[in-house]
Amino acid sequence: MKKIIIPISTLFVVGLSHAQTLNLSTNQNYVYSKTYLDYNASTASKTAETVQYLDGLGRPKQVVNIKASPLQKDVVSHITYDGFGRQALDYLPVPQGGTMNGAIIPDPLANAPNTPLGNEVIFAKKEFENSPLDRVLEQKQVGQAWSEKPVKFNYDANADGEVKKYTATFDYSTFVSEIVLSSVGYGANQLYKNTVTDEDGNKTIEFKNGQGQTILVRKMLDDVTKADTYYIYNDYNQLAFVIPPLAADAVKNLTTGAFPDITLNNLCYQYKYDSRNRLVEKKLPGKGWEYMVYDKADRLIFTQDAVMHPTGKWLFTKYDKFGRVILTGIVGGTDRADMQNMISNNLIIENRSRSGFTKNGMQIYYSNDHFPYLETVLSVNYYDTYPYYTPSFTPTVTNLPLLTDDSSLNVSTKSLPVASYVKNIEDDNWTKNYTWYDQKGRAIGTHSVNHLGGYTKTESELDFSGTPKMVVTRHKRLDSDAERVSNENFTYDHQNRLVTHTHQVDNNPVEYLAQNKYNELSQLEYKKVGGTSSNTPLQQVDYLYNIRGWMTQINDPANLGSDLLGYKIKYNQVEGEQTPNNDFLALQVKPKYNGNIAEVDWKTSTQENEPLKRYGYVYDRLNRLLAGFYQNEINPTAKEYFEKIDYDLNGNITRLQRSAELMTGNTAAFKIDNLRYDHTGNRLTKVTEEEIGKSDGYPYLASHNTIEYDNNLANGNGNMTKHLDKGISSIQYNFLNLPKQITQNAQVTNYIYRADGVKVKKLFGDIETNYLDGFQYKALKPSQENPGGLIGPDDVAVMKLRIIPTSEGYFDAITNQYIYNYTDHLGNIRLSYTDTNKDGVIQPRQYFVSECDGNWNPPFEFPTCIDNWKPGEIVEINNYYPFGLMHNYTATTQNAYQYKYNGKELQETGMYDYGARLYMPDIGRWGVVDPLAEKYINWSPYNYSINNPIRWIDPDGRGVTDVVLRGDQAKEAFEQLKNASSNLNLKMDSKGKVTGTLKKGATATDAESTLLSAMSNKSVVVDVLAQSSNVIESDNTAIFGGAFRGSTINSSIDASLEGSPNTITHANQTINPTDLGEMDTYYSAVKGVGVMHEILEAYSGAINSPGAISITGKQNRALGKDWYLNAHNNASALDPRINYNLDSENKILPRTAGGNIRIERTLYRQVNGIRESKSLGTVEIKPKTK
């Protein structure tokens, strides 16, 4: 969205409209907003009402969320300012003792002790420096424990020679770029030097030049050892090279001259641009060169990686006239320069066609004018009108009329995605997806025809706000199969917090998956799980949180009662041994205040008098896990199940030590692994087991083998192809770098994926598994359906539905039973259970029942009774080492469900399938390069969860991200975002952190998929300031809707924002959601697409241009323009709904009598050839003084 930026000062907006039942304080300035969550206008029973009271300067001083708590009491945010107008104290929202129906609360903090906040310190405090810059020197978080643990900020300049001076040269004629180290480093005071010291004393130092470009990020492992990441820019201010810590250390003794090629190619990031500032070539550490080609509109058309390069093949993308992706596939070609010359002056646009063309067995209803000799079409997307042969859809859940594709009507599917086809990579079978919408443009029906001819259909009944009330899913593997139907029903409270979730498969009894209760802070207090009656749940799971909002307990392991599992998370408390293992006296378990976890305790009720188990954790100053020490309360110093890890500066593991359980008669457990890792660059080339004769963890061999990668360590994609120590003799990959075949110990596993990376089939030997929209099938012989069955010689395997996933576990389609999972804070499956005998009570251990013969004649005969022992109703118990390897006493009675660590599927190879990569828990790393390696630029692209697997997870093998909405209009921005994300379930917590999941049966759009990525990746914080003002105070700049504020790398992130292990990239965006909403409405777009666009723009900028300069401020405008345009265009391509052209004007009016400038902001549009206008109001500005 175009931003027109003018230096101004401030803006006041006061709204006066309200309903009669309110009790607003009319002697105050206020803005009242009301969002309807159900129908019936003035009599709506569910609304979200907010009053923002303003002081005499137009600043928010109190925000009242009317009846917003679960008990329908007001929740109030108190806002104060110091004498300089700075917000030094940030208070947590406080639930009140009742409601005042919108009136201002005289003492909004008084009720805090009566809420879960208790007597804690409920404000975060900033200390500012005594200067006009108002820079933060310290920030103390909420909570008494954090009052003495501030985050400290120091602002300085570099010393002479403190930072090396690298320069990059680029010759367009040869297209060669080089790094040269100057013999003289940066002189004193040439760079800004900002230091952040977190709550645990970990330091990050960032050096920037006068243009705002990050030159060096330095992390201190101790007072001497440094982990340096250098960013090098060419003559055109383009990021040309990144030197990660291991590379910087390798050349630490280099004083001048050219950078060594071997270090550059193995460890550094390299980028080349064309004359239009477009990234056209890049090389990531350990990979070959990748190439990119653009059309006239700067849209990415061709990409080629190092494996495709020798074959001359390119991945292509074609667009329609609105910039929406319509076709992707593979085409033959020549080198990058020739491909660029071929399309430089063209817009690669194809149009809908009645006849189209046929490719890979699919009739495609688009023209094929540009590079028509396509080798393979991988995906096809249709918008606006449904393609021919679209199956019919008749709603059965609701009788609401559907949107049609008749564009002559007032509303239609024009601008909406209606169908998408995705081909299997390994064959020419397709999955066809169709979406139907209601009259509000919300997706209420989907129909996915799978590659086998079956289908998955979903229908959703949505309430007024778009929240699902009921979802019906109909499924077949083959078209000839019997249809399986699941029904889900949802109920919510007055603020749309989920209260109950029921599930029914076919005609089986309705099951209560979850019944939720929330505390007054809207945190989940407990969840009743399972059962066919709301009054008789199988388990009640209780949750506790600390003042920071971090979960601290899942049931109480010290007092289980009828609970099957208790799990306790400790951050700033240590209850176990400080030095659990005297082999490592320097490694001590200590309280942590920066979000790292110090200890976890757990206990199950599956054994009589089972002892409490505990892990204590030790970290280095880069927040990397150094050790996980297991402690059994009976013998806590027995050295059982520990892992101890050493790293290089890039985070590659260099040594891993591990032990097993304590054997009877011993006082200490035996070590089973002492692994030495050898690397070439970041690639692991050999693992040597130095614990002689031990193969319980990693296999011991007299002579260990070399681990091999594609293309002989030269110009491949960095994919592991051979690991003979584990019997893996071959791994073959498809173009997505996903394994299509793995050979291990002569056993072959074949995989089939769709072109979007979704796995649809696995063939392990002769055992076939199908993955179809969450429904999982497995070929079983009749004798294998029950545990312990003998396989008959004439048994024939039959493909049968095994798993229907649910939000709390899964439904076993063979036994017709619901299986429930206890998961920890990382999503690890800890314990699973089922009500086998349907008595409503879970038997945690083996039990007996008396079974009597019924054939007897009383009173002369007596029954014959036998006490039969029955197995308990625990399906599996799993315990894990810190990096995910399972303890050797893990037990299971169910081999069909192999989802364990992080909830990921364990493969027959011993690796976990995360979706984008396979993870090896025995050695704690991936076998292929991170697809998002550039987001973790100072880490090895093979590391797992930035080496802190206790705090972070890797959702899909791509990355470990937050989206945070803050400011006085955060709630309005969130409501608009929800409206624009009809396929997602979105939530926003009290701190503005937005989280979400894909709705059951829904298909995410490109924009929604990217939003989900932005919310799940801890290396990027998208910080969106949503405000009612159109002024950015810090640089005296006005915004029109939103403004790109750039990003910082490893910068001094506002410590009030949760979720950044080492703060890799912090993206900033400022928006006015009121203006954005008006623009959406004025140009007939879905309300909220503007907010969505701004978030995607910030995220795109963080990924593609880390360290980009803000577009705001007179000095930055020219420097930041290219970065902004790149982020803006990428965001626009993701969401075709933002296809209106903003026509606007800012008109300067005569000054007021007091000398203030007035600006009138106006929107224009064309309606039937007539240019209409709409005013967005007038802004009064105080002129700047020199």
Helical fraction equals under 10%
Quantity of strands, as a count: 76
Q: Number of DSSP helices?
A: 8
The N- to C-terminal Cα distance equals: 32 Å
Average pLDDT over all residues:
86
Q: Major β-sheet, in short?
A: 35 strands, antiparallel
Beta-strand level of the residues, as a percent range? 35-45%
**Quick one: overall form?**
globular
Low-confidence runs: 1-20, 1050-1063, 1113-1119
Category from helices, strands and their pairing? mainly beta
Radius of gyration, whole Å? 31 Å
Oligomer: single chain
Keywords:
1186 residues; 12-stranded antiparallel sheet; RHS repeat-associated core domain; 35-stranded antiparallel sheet; 8% helix; Rhs_assc_core; T6SS_VgrG/RHS
Explain briefly what this protein structure is:
It is built from 8 helices and 76 strands. With 1186 residues, the chain is mainly β. Among the domains are: 163-273; 483-537; 777-903, no CATH class; 961-1141, no CATH class.
Characterization of this structure:
It comes from Chryseobacterium balustinum. The protein has a 35-stranded antiparallel β-sheet. A twelve-stranded antiparallel β-sheet has the order 48-49-50-51-52-53-54-55-56-57-60-61, with no helix packed on it. β55 (809-812) and β56 (817-823) form a beta hairpin. By secondary structure, it is mostly beta strands. Among the domains are: 163-273; 483-537; 777-903, no CATH class; 961-1141, no CATH class. 8% of the residues lie in helices and 39% in strands. α5 crosses α7 and α7 (1089-1104) packs across α8.
